[in-house]
Amino acid sequence: MGKLITEPNIPDPDGFYEELVGLHEGLTEAQSAAVNARLVLILANQVGDREVLAEAMEAARKAAQSVIDRQEGQEG
Amino acid sequence: MAQSPGQRIFETPLYPYRRCADQEAGGPVRRKVVVVGAGPIGLAAGIDLAQQGVPVVILDENDKVSHGSRAICFAKRPLEILDRLGCGERMVEKGVTWNIGKVFFGDRKVYEFDLLPESGHKRPAFINLQQYYLEQYMVDRVRELEAAGAPIELRGKNCIEAVGVHDDHVRLEISTPEGPYNLEAEWLIACDGARSPIRSMLGLDFVGKVFEDNFLIADVVMEADFPTERWFWFDPPFNPGQSALLHKQPDNVWRIDFQIGWDIDREEELKEENVRRRLHAMLGEDAKFDLEWLSIYTFQCRRMEKFRHGRVIFAGDAAHQVSPFGARGANSGFQDTDNLAWKLRLVIEGKAPESLLESYDAERIFAADENILNSTRSTEFITPKSPASRLFRDAVLDLSEHFAFARPLVNAGRLSVPSVYDESPLNGPDDAALPRRTRPGAPAADAPTREGWLIDRLGNRFQILAIGTDVPPHFEEAGVEVEILRLSADESPEFRERWLGEAPGAVYLMRPDQHVAARWQAFDAAAMRAALHRAIGLE
Ligand SMILES: Cc1cc2nc3c(=O)[nH]c(=O)nc-3n(C[C@H](O)[C@H](O)[C@H](O)COP(=O)(O)OP(=O)(O)OC[C@H]3O[C@@H](n4cnc5c(N)ncnc54)[C@H](O)[C@@H]3O)c2cc1C
Fold first, then answer.
1. Are B46 and B187 in contact (CB under 8 A)?
2. How many CB pairs under 8 A join A and B?
3. Is B405 close to A45, i.e. CB distance below 8 A?
4. How high is the mean pLDDT of chain B?
C-alpha cells in the first residue's frame, strides 16, 4: 500500500456512520445496491487519483475475502 | 424491399470473371505478390504495392462489393491512407460528417456531446459511408492504375482452394467458373476476412473472446427529419434491456442497430414484418421507410498470435477481429497494409533484410491489442455481462444526466485513433523537447503549410523534414534515396505547435507510411544514417 489513507480521516465518525446507514433506510437490497453504486462513482471522482483508486479497490476486495470464501463454501 | 435487385451496387458484379493468361500457361506461373481477398484491406494492399511499382495480383472468390453497408464509419487516419492510395477524395465528397452525439437511457436523453473537431486538418475526425461505396471507389482506383500501366490485376471468381507453403514461395490452387489452375506467389498477403480460409488451411490459431450476443442491423431509406447525429440508446422502451443505435449514411440511408440477445430465432428476427414492427416501435407508427439491407451479426474480439508466417502475411479481419463498437475493423486493417506495403517493397527490391517484416508483426500486433482492448471495453459497457457490471453501467448513465464527471465514463464506442508505435524496433532517437504528439512511432500530425496540407506532401518514400534548419541537398543511404522536404518554422500556427513546440528548428526522418522514424533539433549526418539503417531493419 502506498497512497491510500488507512489511518482515521473522517471527523465525527459516529455521525458519518449514522448518515451512511440512514441513506439506505427503507430500501430493498436492489435499491441499496443502486445507491451504493452511485455513491462509489461520486466518491471515486472526488478522489480522482488512479493509484489511490486502484489501492482502494484492492483493499476492499481483500477485506471482503472472508465473506466471499464463506459464501462459496455454502454454495459448494 | 424498395429497390428491385440489380439496382443495388452490391448485387451487381463489379469485377466479373475473365479468363487470364495464367490459366493458359502449361504450369503454374510465378507471381511476385498475390493478395487473397478483394475486401477493403486486400484492395488497399494491391493498390499500395502497385503504386510503388511492385507487381501484384488480387484474387477474390466473389465478384461484387461488400454485401450491404457493413462498415460505415471511417476515421481520419484511414482517410489519410486512402488519400495516399488515391481514393480519399471521393469518399469524403460522398460521405456524411457528424459532430453531435446524443445518449439516451430508458425513455430520456441523458446528455449530448459535440466532438468539436480540432482545426488545421485536411480530413475530418471521421465520415459515414457505406462499405460498398468505399469498395467501389477502390475497384475504380485499381482500374485507373491498370489503365495507366501499373502492374496490378484483379481477378473475380478466383477462389483459393489450397495452399502449399515453401521456403521461398507459396503454391496456390485456384478454382474458377472455367475450372482450376495453379499459381506460385513469392509473397502471399492473406486478406480473406474474419473466417480466413487461408488461416484454416495453414492450421493457425485465432483465439480470443466470444461475445454471446446478436445484433440486428437494418439499413432503412427514409426522408426523416432526424438531424445528422449519432443517437445511442441504452435500455430504450422500444428495446427493453438492450441497446440501439441510429446513424446516418449518404443517400438518406440510416443504419439502425438493435441488440437482440443471445437466444434468438434468426429466421424469425429477419422476417420483414418483424423488423418493421421493431422499427415502428422506435420511429413511430407513421414512420415511412424502405428496407435496404437486413443482417444479424455476432462478434468476437481476437487476433492471431503472429501475423507473419514465412511467406504468408495476414492483414485485416483475417489477422484480427474486433466488435463493431468504435469502428475499428476496416479502420485498423488499412493501417496494417499501410505498414506492410513499403516494407515488403524494400525486401522485394533487396534493399532491406527479410527481418524488416518482423516489425510488421511487432507494430501491428501492438495496434491490434490496443483495438481489441478498446472494443472489448465498449462491449462490456454496452452489453454488461454480470449484474454488477449492469449496476455500475446504469449508475453511470443516471449520473451522466446531472453530473458532467460521469460522461467520460459512458462508453458507447471509442473513436478509432491510430496507434503510436512507441516500442517499435524501427524507432530512432527522439528529442524530448519537441512536441510529444510527433514523437518517433507516431503517425504524422497534419497541419496547413504554405504549399497545402502537410499530409499531402508526405508518404510513399523516406523523407527528411527540415523545419527552419539547414540540411544537405541530397541524402542517400544503403541504396535508399531520401527526399528532402524543406519547411519554415512558421508555415502555420498548427504546424509550429504540432512539429516544433518551443524549438527553433527540427529535423524529422519520416517513413513511407507517414510515421515518424526519428527526430532531432539539428541535422547530423551520422545520426541520420544510423536512424535510416534502423528504420529499414539493418540493425
Ligand atoms: C455490422 C458491421 C459493422 C461494421 N462497422 C464498421 C465500421 O463502422 N468501421 C470499420 O472500420 N469497420 C466496421 N466493420 C468491420 C469491417 O466491415 C471489416 O473489418 C472489413 O470488412 C474487413 O475487411 P477485410 O478486407 O479484412 O475483409 P472482408 O471485407 O471480409 O473481405 C474478405 C474477402 O476475402 C474474400 N475471400 C474469402 N475467402 C476467399 C477464398 N478462399 N478465395 C478468394 N477470396 C476469398 C471474400 O470474398 C471477401 O471479399 C463492421 C462490420 C460489420 C459486420
1. no
2. 25
3. yes
4. 94
